Amino acid sequence: MTLKEKLAGKIAAMREDLKKLAKDHAARVISEVTVEQAYGGMRGIKSLVCDTSEVDNNRGLIIRERHISELTEKTPEEILWLLLTGELPDSEELKSLKADMADRSAVPRYVWDVLKAMPKDSHPMTMLSAAILCMDKDSVFKKRYDEGMKKDVYWEPMLEDTLNLVARTPVIAAGIYRMRYGKGPLIESDNSLDMSANFARMHGISDPDGKFADLMRLYLVLHSDHESGNVSAFTTHTVASALSNLYYAVSAGLNGLAGPLHGLANQECLKWVLMVKDMFKGVPSDEQLHKFAWDTLQSGKVIPGYGHAVLRQTDPRFTAFMEFGKKICPDDQVFQIAEKTFKVVPPILVQQGKAKDPWPNVDAASGCLLWHFGMNEFDYYTVLFGVSRIMGISAQAVISRAIGSPIVRPKSVTTRWIKGFVTKEAVTAKA
Ligand code: CMX
Questions:
Q1: Can you tell me which atom of ligand 1 is nearest the CA of 43?
Q2: Ligand 1 interacting residues, C-beta cut-off 6 A
Q3: Residue range 107-147, pLDDT digits in tens
Q4: Distance 321 CA to ligand 1 centre (A)
Q5: HSE-up (13 A, CA, CB side) for residue 225
Q6: Percent above pLDDT 90 for the chain
Q7: What is the pLDDT of residues 294-321, one digit of tens each?
Q8: Packing angle between helix 246-257 and helix 231-241, nearest 10 degrees?
Q9: Which residue, among 372, 337, 52, 59, has the nearest Cα to 219 in the 3D structure?
Q10: Where in the chain are the domains?
Q11: Distance of CA 311 to the CA centre of its chain
Q12: Which atom of ligand 1 is nearest to the CA of 262?
């Protein structure tokens, strides 16, 4: 069965289910909003629905009811199928998806022309976002919308755009790597390989035993989705809700991923680890690292890779990367500094008493592994995050079209309104 057939079989039931839920319980209150939350990035307000994945405060990422630790041996293609359908594919389904993706992976020539025309020192995330944005002209959703398609089939061209985008992005990203860092001619895609092996190969990094390809596989799996309230997913959802096509929506989402408090933290994190290594000419003692971390905080900076808006325990994606590192590069000094940081930093953040989550997130571990394999251009790292995250945010967009999600439009209020509201409450309370 193809991915489209599988989804089509599920969508009718999903719509029925939601219709009944909304009819029977439309007025039930599931969350309240405090003044602190209104000013505080809407943290914790339950006002979005995401069925592809959820993030539990303590357990971390759960994709379609499977904890991420159960999925670390899977391939990105399996994860894409899981995100969209709620099931892992059988071997025939996986084979058909891989063949379909290979057929869709050719990157239009104009994308390379756009990338070549960009300033040589453009950030790789700017290049990725621009490359995706310029493909909007080929959006199947856009074409079908202009032709006047009915609302109940919106998800079909959205799925087409998703498959095209997910298939092409690894080729574009590896091309950006080769162009941006003067690595020589682009390496042709080898469609006999699966997505992660092909992706690893197209970077041109020496990989005699396939371990770098395995890291790419793990990387693409671990970053694939993180429910829908994070900046990249929420932005993608908001833009797509205006019926903008997937290329517009994903490009916008990636611009959010490029922020240092979100996906760019992986490059910032490795920079921090390398600063430690340079300063102490290798792995510092616990005391030296302790002082370095305090100095970072006292200079007004955050410790990248630590803390999270939702998590309150060590991110299981961090754990998965550390387990990989312990097998592959336990003696690498950069990896050892990342390990030591995990021991030293959480108690410092607790002592400082500001961060609600003192534990490492996914970005605290990924960079040191890439560094180990000789991928030293750390401002490229967020592009890898983006290639993976496109699977989740696009799957969310397909599901949103399938259930007819309306345009996003929460209500804002003025500070004057809030002051008036709380004063009225205070008066009522006194009376
Ligand atoms: N180092 C120092 N201070 C930190 C901190 C860290 N790692 N994490 C949080 N804090 C501080 C915040 O800056 C904030 O300080 P102020 O009150 O002075 O503004 C205070 O602790 C409370 O913040 P919080 O409620 O715990 O965290 P938020 O939900 O506001 O923000 C996050 C979450 C991730 C942006 C924040 O923890 C952070 O900046 N971490 C470092 C950057 C990072 O690793 N980002 C990647 C997150 C994962 C991802 O999206 O990829």
A1: 29
A2: 43, 230, 261-263, 265, 297, 302-309, 354-357, 361, 363
A3: 999 999 999 999 999 999 999 999 999 999 999 999 999 99
A4: 21
A5: 31
A6: 97
A7: 999 999 999 999 999 999 999 999 999 9
A8: 150
A9: 372
A10: 3-20+41-259+384-402, 265-379
A11: 15
A12: 50
Cross-strand bridge partners of residue 55: 61
Ligand 1 centroid from CA 144, angstroms: 42
CATH number assigned to the domain covering 265-379: 1.10.230.10
On whether the CB atoms of residues 18 and 403 are closer than 8 A, the answer is yes
Mind listing the pLDDT tens digit for each residue in 362-417?
Answer: 999 999 999 999 999 999 999 999 999 999 999 999 999 999 999 999 999 999 99
Question: pLDDT at position 427, please?
Answer: 83
Active site residues: 262, 308, 363
Tokens of 17: 């289910």
CA-closest residue to ligand 1 atom 2: 302
Residues with Cβ within 8 Å of residue 206, at least 6 apart in sequence: 212, 374
Residue 371 amino acid letter = W
Atom of ligand 1 nearest to the CA of 231: 50
Residue type, 44: G
CA 308 to ligand 1 centroid distance, Å: 6
The pLDDT, as a whole number, for residue 428 is: 82
Q: 398: CA distance to ligand 1 center in Å?
A: 31
The CATH fold of domain 3-20+41-259+384-402:
Citrate Synthase; domain 1 (1.10.580)
Q: Which residue is listed with tokens 């990248």?
A: 304
